[in-house]
Amino acid sequence: MRRAAQLLRTCHIRDAVAVIEYLVWLEKNIPTNTVSELSGAQYVDGLRAKQEHSKGPSFETISAGGLNAALAHYSATNDTNRQLTVNEMYLVDSGGQYLDGTTDITRTVHWGKPTAFEKETYTRVLMGNIELSRLVFPPQTSGRLVEAFAREALWKAGLNYGHGTGHGIGNFFAVHEWLTKKVISVQQYRIDQRNVLIN
């Protein structure tokens, strides 16, 4: 298990390099109004392809601006593709398949002045992720119980999101590892110390 965890860790470090390069590129290019949802997805996939041991995306990159960012598993097409602007939020949900691991990350950013509502919801989701990272629970705890901690800050404001908070992930495997695919959602799977989870 330690070897698998180390492989996954080094894979995520390389993958983070590609994601950081992408965010820097976006920061420079979004203000020029030259980046669309589709061109952004192609660019981040290309950055990952340059990383050592890369075998391609772990799933189709979700690159979504404005209202499209609120749609779970949105996939830009030629008909729905929109230009990314400094005036709205942008979400990228993407990952890489590497010989030593699989990644799946989501980042939500804004290059302009977010609205008060955008700031509040972003902050409340962040609070839930921080709560999850600090949570101590016994083995075999139900994902349903853990999910409640991730959503508490949103629930206090009468808000929610229509998607699971996280899932299991493997080493050069399916991005949604089968046994724990919905471990932090409404399913009844039990979390074990051998599970690798993302949220």
TrEMBL record:
Q: Which SUPFAM superfamilies match?
A: Creatinase/aminopeptidase
What the entry lists under Pfam families is as follows: Peptidase_M24
The cross-references to InterPro entries, in alphabetical order and at most eight, read:
Creatinase/aminopeptidase-like, Pept_M24, X-Pro_aminopeptidase_P
Report domain Peptidase M24 positions.
7-181
PANTHER family referenced in this protein's UniProt entry, alphabetically: XAA-PRO AMINOPEPTIDASE 1, XAA-PRO AMINOPEPTIDASE 2
By what name is this protein known?
Peptidase M24 domain-containing protein
Provenance organism = Staurois parvus
